[in-house]
């Protein structure tokens, strides 16, 4: 078939509508008065933000949201209602100085809308704190975390991503046999599928998914009882086994959709291009090659960020734990364990990069074939008709446990006998090596996300997986715990960010006061 099929036509129409909306908003924005940021502190703010980014180690597209979240978290702690009601300007000053938004690009009407949102969510925050049965975490997740996402949506139009999400949802509804895959089709399947698509294709965090679902259910903090009930249902959805099952299914069968999503981001004329099948497929193939190059650069940048993250964290741990411990136990700093613990994980990350290889031409051909079927076949092919769980005998689990003991035990024995390590040094070494392994595994996932066919395992990758998978498992466990209590980020927030941003705000106010006095002369 040379013409777009039903879901292809729906997708093209949704993209055209999103582009028209974006153009209308941009034209209206051009005629409005813009927020202009002046004053000291831009260099310091930008430098601190880079340090904070390295410490948090989150997805790049979530950085703006996290910066907004930290701003409102500080503001809600202060509990100054008047300041919150006019917080839009202060937020835009911080974001502009940190480099997240361009100066003179945000309309004053948007700033007023931010003020309105902040006031609404702060009122809900106070009510949530008084509601029995809610934890502090729930108050945060339903309060300033959602405010951060909604504020980001005001700053950056995301209507084209909403069109893509709906297209992907329709595609999987048509191509997955849920009853054969899951044994049955629970009532919440399509809602969970929406969340799984957000996680797998858009890399959305829970706050983004939660707000998307709240918008679908037409719930807001204005109607607090229904808002609380819906959020509780969303919490249950996030914890459901169905979420993990659908996430893994979508994740492994979306390589061609990820490439298409990048075309959506890059080319507003994509709907027109899609009408010409042969031309579209040529451009799609080129986009695949561009994505390979982009992912390669992201992996390299990820290695650099990981090295910085490991060095910062290890430096703080060394000062806080290892150096005092060495003086207490040995009477002097044991430099060999200290330097090995500091240098080996970053060097290991760099060496790991050499084993991360990009997909080959066969993978490219498969991606082109899949997108052709998705957009132009009369009936998209059903992808799966059987359950995906693989069953392994107990012997595999026993062998896996033995591998754990051999790898960890062998490394510990070498360090203990030849490099002056004791139990504390070994614990620090394994924590950081496991963390480095998990960071490397996360980077390898970026490559795997573009693989439509299973990559060929070379001797090097087999050895690598054998040696580093035990560390990856431990690293993931540590990462999950660390993400809940990020000590480095907490130290930066309390000892640097809070006083720094307070001082810079006072400097800006003083500068404005002096400027006003000059005008009076």
Topology of helices and strands:
Blueprint: H1 6-30, H2 42-56, H3 63-78, H4 81-85, H5 87-98, H6 108-130, H7 136-142, H8 144-155, H9 159-175, H10 178-182, H11 189-201, H12 206-216, H13 224-239, H14 241-252, H15 255-266, H16 270-274, H17 277-329, H18 335-353, H19 361-376, H20 394-418, H21 423-448, H22 459-484, H23 487-520
Helix pairs in contact: 1-9, 2-5, 2-23, 3-8, 5-6, 6-8, 7-8, 8-12, 9-11, 9-15, 11-12, 11-14, 12-13, 15-17, 15-19, 17-18, 17-19, 17-21, 18-21, 20-22, 21-22
Q: Which consecutive residue ranges, at least 5 long each, have pLDDT under 50?
A: none
Q: What share of residues is helical?
A: over 70%
Q: From the alpha carbons, calculate the radius of gyration and give it in angstroms.
A: 26 Å
Structural class by helix and strand composition:
mainly alpha
Number of strands: 0
- Please count the helical segments: 23
Average pLDDT figure: 82
Give the H and E element order.
HHHHHHHHHHHHHHHHHHHHHHH
Distance between the termini: 76 Å
Beta fraction of the residues? under 5%
Overall, the morphology is globular
**Biggest sheet details:** none
């Amino acid at each position: 078939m040379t013409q777009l099929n039903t879901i292809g036509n729906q997708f093209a129409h949704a993209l055209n509508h999103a582009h028209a909306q974006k153009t209308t908003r941009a034209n209206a924005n051009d005629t409005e008065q813009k927020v202009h940021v002046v004053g000291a502190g831009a260099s310091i703010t930008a430098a601190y933000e880079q340090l904070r980014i390295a410490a948090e180690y989150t997805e790049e597209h979530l950085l703006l949201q996290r910066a907004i979240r930290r701003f409102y978290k500080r503001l809600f702690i202060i509990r100054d209602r008047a300041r919150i009601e006019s917080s839009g300007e202060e937020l835009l000053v911080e974001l502009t100085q940190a480099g997240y938004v361009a100066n003179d690009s945000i309309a004053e009407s948007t700033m007023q809308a931010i003020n309105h949102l902040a006031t609404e969510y702060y009122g809900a925050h106070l009510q949530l704190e008084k509601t029995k049965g809610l934890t502090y975490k729930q108050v945060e997740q339903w309060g300033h975390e959602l405010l951060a996402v909604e504020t980001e949506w005001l700053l950056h139009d995301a209507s084209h991503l909403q069109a893509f999400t709906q297209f992907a949802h329709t595609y999987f509804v048509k191509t997955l046999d849920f009853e054969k895959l899951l044994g049955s089709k629970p009532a919440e399947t399509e809602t969970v599928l929406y969340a799984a698509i957000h996680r797998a294709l858009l890399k959305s965090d829970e706050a983004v998914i939660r707000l998307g679902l709240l918008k679908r259910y037409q719930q807001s903090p204005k109607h607090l009882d229904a808002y609380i009930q819906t959020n509780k249902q969303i919490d249950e959805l996030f914890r459901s086994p169905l979420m993990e099952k659908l996430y893994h299914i979508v994740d492994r069968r979306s390589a061609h959709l990820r490439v298409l999503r990048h075309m959506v981001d890059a080319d507003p004329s994509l709907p027109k291009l899609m009408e010409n099948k042969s031309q579209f497929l040529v451009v799609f193939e080129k986009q695949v090659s561009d994505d390979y190059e982009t992912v390669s650069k992201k992996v390299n940048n990820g290695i650099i960020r990981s090295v910085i993250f490991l060095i910062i964290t290890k430096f703080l741990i060394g000062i806080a734990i290892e150096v005092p411990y060495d003086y207490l136990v040995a009477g002097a700093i044991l430099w060999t364990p200290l330097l090995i613990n500091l240098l080996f994980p970053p060097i290991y990350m760099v060496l790991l990069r050499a084993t991360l290889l990009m997909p080959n031409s066969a993978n490219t051909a498969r991606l082109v074939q899949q997108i052709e079927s998705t957009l132009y076949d009369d009936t998209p092919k059903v992808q799966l008709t059987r359950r995906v769980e693989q069953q392994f005998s107990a012997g595999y689990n026993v062998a896996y446990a033995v591998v754990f003991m051999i790898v960890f035990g062998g490394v510990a024995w070498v360090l203990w006998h030849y490099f002056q390590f004791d139990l504390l040094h070994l614990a620090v070494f394994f924590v950081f090596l496991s963390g480095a392994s998990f960071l490397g595994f996360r980077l390898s996932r970026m490559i795997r996300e573009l693989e439509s066919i299973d990559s060929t395992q070379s001797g090097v990758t087999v050895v690598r997986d054998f040696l580093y998978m035990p560390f990856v498992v431990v690293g993931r466990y540590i990462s999950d715990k660390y993400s809940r209590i990020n000590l480095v980020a907490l130290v930066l927030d309390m000892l640097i960010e809070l006083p720094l941003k307070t001082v810079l705000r006072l400097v800006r106010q003083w500068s404005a006061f002096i400027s006003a006095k000059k005008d009076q002369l």
